[in-house]
């Protein structure tokens, strides 16, 4: 028997929960796409995107998903035959490397496994051995497959300590609007993100951000795609060139409302603090469940854990029945497992705690998971929900 006759809850790590305010902002007739409110709204969005990324650099908006802006970023500063160093702590780090390889870029992959963050000393050693051939370093801030968050400031220091000239390019698709990210202060030259996670908008638009150094490199790069070319979008002669054609009107309406919520109302420091507190509550629950040995957080070192998504693994059992029980009986959809290392997808579930979430949703999700553990007789420690509540109350 299904008990799910109310509103279902998705805790997938993107698309995240869309606020009613965002949905309502999108629920309107098509606007004039040549002048008027849409033009002013886009300018406001670009200013707010700079604030979220903590940069004075240039954001560009693409009708795309995250994979598309991987390609866009590469296309603007690299060309076939160039060499890059790609740092991987999960599926999405190596995924960006695969896109580069497909574009004819030579990739050296530095794989740090699926349970720990980057080691800055290893990066520095690779840069010293490279003798200046790397044109760019590709890094993922938070990898949604493993839920590892990497120290980008330490990575920049490793680059600077070796005197290497490579561009630092960072994937913030999972982290932007959830975890502290300081594009300018951390010396990031190019950053990519998307709308469907911390920015709380349905999938469909994605972004690149670049600084002056990246713009200068781009001027000397042979670009064959007018669509991915960020120069035309950054400095358009007419409005439609910001999108290389018809703008994604209703995504713009939704994004404008979401950025008002994040930047103007809650404030970015509070957004980060909220995500940290909610992540700590989830970890407290999972770490107690883990006492029985059946499931645990993939990441043991708390400093390496993401405040946007938590990956849970089992060394001993198939977690597919738990996915099914939560969804079919209780109306809770967990994030699917993306296989990595020694773990198959059925040994994994993920909890997305990004974007539009509060303690009611968080504790409801954790209580439902615990009910599923009980129903399926999966061994787990007791007192997890109380532990999560204590964190939220502290």
What are the salient characteristics of this protein?
seven-stranded mixed beta sheet; 2 domains; Aspartate Aminotransferase, domain 1
Can you describe this structure?
By secondary structure, this protein is α/β, with parallel strands linked by helices. The protein has 2 domains: 9-16 and 268-393, Alpha-Beta Complex (Aspartate Aminotransferase, domain 1), CATH 3.90.1150; 21-264, 3-Layer(aba) Sandwich (Aspartate Aminotransferase, domain 2), CATH 3.40.640.10. The protein has helices spanning 20-26, 37-53, 66-77, 91-102, 120-130, 152-162, 212-219, 230-234, 249-266, 268-289, 320-329, 359-375, 384-393, and strands at residues 9-11, 58-63, 83-88, 106-111, 134-140, 142-143, 148-149, 167-171, 190-194, 205-210, 296-297, 309-313, 332-334, 348-352. The strands form 4 sheets. It has a 7-stranded mixed β-sheet with strand order 2-10-9-8-5-3-4, sandwiched between helices. A 3-stranded antiparallel β-sheet has the order 11-12-14, with helices on one face. Strand 6 and strand 7 (148-149) form a beta hairpin. It is globular. The model has no long low-confidence stretch (mean pLDDT 96).
């Amino acid at each position: 028997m299904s008990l799910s006759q109310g509103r279902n809850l998705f805790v997938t790590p993107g698309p995240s929960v869309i606020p009613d305010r965002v949905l309502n902002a999108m629920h309107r007739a098509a606007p004039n796409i040549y002048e008027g409110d849409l033009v002013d709204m886009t300018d406001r969005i670009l200013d707010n995107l700079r604030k979220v990324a903590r940069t004075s650099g240039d954001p560009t908006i693409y009708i795309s998903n995250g994979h598309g802006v991987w390609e866009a970023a590469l296309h603007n500063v690299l060309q076939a035959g160039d060499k890059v160093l790609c740092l991987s702590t999960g599926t999405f780090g190596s995924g960006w490397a695969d896109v580069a390889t497909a574009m004819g870029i030579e990739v050296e992959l530095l794989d740090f496994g699926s349970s720990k963050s980057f080691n800055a000393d290893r990066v520095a050693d690779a840069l010293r051995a490279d003798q200046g051939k790397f044109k760019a370093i590709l890094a993922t801030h938070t990898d949604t497959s493993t839920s590892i968050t990497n120290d980008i400031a330490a990575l920049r220091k490793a680059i600077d300590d070796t005197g290497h000239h490579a561009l630092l390019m960072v994937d913030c698709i999972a982290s932007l609007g959830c975890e502290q990210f300081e594009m300018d202060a951390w010396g990031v030259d190019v950053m990519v993100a998307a709308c469907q996670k911390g920015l709380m908008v349905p999938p469909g638009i994605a972004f690149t951000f670049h600084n002056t150094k990246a713009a200068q490199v781009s001027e000397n790069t042979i670009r064959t795609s007018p669509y991915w070319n960020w120069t035309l979008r950054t400095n358009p002669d007419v409005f439609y060139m910001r999108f290389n054609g018809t703008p994604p009107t209703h995504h713009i309406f939704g994004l404008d409302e979401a950025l008002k919520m994040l930047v103007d109302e809650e404030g970015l420091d509070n957004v980060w603090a909220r995500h940290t507190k909610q992540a700590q509550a989830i970890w407290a629950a999972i770490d107690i469940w883990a006492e029985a040995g059946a499931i645990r957080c993939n990441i043991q070192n708390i400093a390496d854990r993401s405040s946007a998504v938590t990956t849970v693994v089992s060394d001993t059992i198939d977690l597919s029945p738990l996915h099914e029980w939560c969804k079919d009986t209780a109306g809770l959809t967990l994030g699917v497992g993306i296989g990595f290392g020694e773990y198959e997808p059925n040994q994994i579930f993920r909890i997305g705690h990004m974007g539009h979430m509060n303690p009611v949703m968080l504790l409801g999700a954790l209580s439902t998971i615990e009910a599923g553990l009980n129903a399926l007789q999966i061994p787990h420690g007791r007192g997890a929900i109380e532990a999560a509540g204590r964190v939220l109350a502290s």
